[in-house]
Amino acid sequence: MFRLDLRLMSFRAMATIAIVSPGAMGAGIAKRLSDAGCRVLSILSGRSTSSRRRAAEAGMHDASLAQIVCEADWVLSILPPDRAEPFVRDFLNAIESIGEDVTLPVFVDCNAKNPETAIRFARLFSSSSKSASGRVVFLNASIVGLPPEGTHVPTFYASAERNPMDQRALEKFATLAQHGLRVKLLTGDSADVRDASALKMSFSGIMKGMVGLYEIMILAAHTHSPAIADALLNEMRSSLPNDLAFIDKYVPQSFDKAYRFVREMEEMAGFVRGHINVETKEAGTTNVNEVGQIYDGLASLFQRLSESADGGGYMHKDGSSDVDVLRNFAEGAHKAA
């Protein structure tokens, strides 16, 4: 029979934690866990040479999904948002194909998604054919902050369904803190599995929304004329120096991540759309203005930047790409700091 024995998962020395995949965040988390004595698994098949090197430096060991299902105590899914659901389905399919005496890992989805997506993932787990005989637990988590570096550690916010088994697993998840990570549980009378996603959407909607807003207006100013972009930079030097510092730090970081931000903005649009709309009445007709369209626009921006970062996309009259324009502005912001 499938079983989930939470007594065995006390994060003893050499606990086995699978992290999928070995990107900057996943590898950074893996490094802290492996340094603390944990065994860290990841799926490296098909990964690039640089990804394999990053995984090796983080102490990650190559494993198949079948091995992970059989050997891991916990599975942390840390993926680009558009790959999160396919991995959930792959994981559940893998459970179907293994023997009946396997102690199942707790699955923790740490990806950027709106609360309704979190509910859909949780339902996929609870509807698994193995659910009735000792189901695998699904926890919802979000990571707030940049990848671990030096003394900086991002925060895992975690939430769960309100049944006793999931709540016990949630409490066990907090023991990751013993291994150098920062974990905060979202609990309380009104808490549910969606909460980690709601917090992630709110926080990242502010941070990445600000990045996108700056980028839109810098590009619009430059498209009008490079002289106006220069004038904007000079004005911000005197009136908005803190904003220039933000641009200097975060705008250049967005270029290589823009492809990931597309789906994240779409998830944010869904989150806002489900909570805030503005109704207006005109000639007896009620019109619903969806505030979430802001993030639909940002998704389009990051798609455009993703193409620019890959060497394509829109070219300005002066021959510069979007990334060129934004990088030059950020360099000017750095000099002004």
Automatic annotation (TrEMBL):
Phosphogluconate dehydrogenase NAD-binding putative C-terminal domain span: 224-304
Tree of life domain: Eukaryota
KARI N-terminal Rossmann domain segment(s): 16-85
Pfam families assigned: DUF1932, KARI_N
Identification of the protein by name: Phosphogluconate dehydrogenase NAD-binding putative C-terminal domain-containing protein
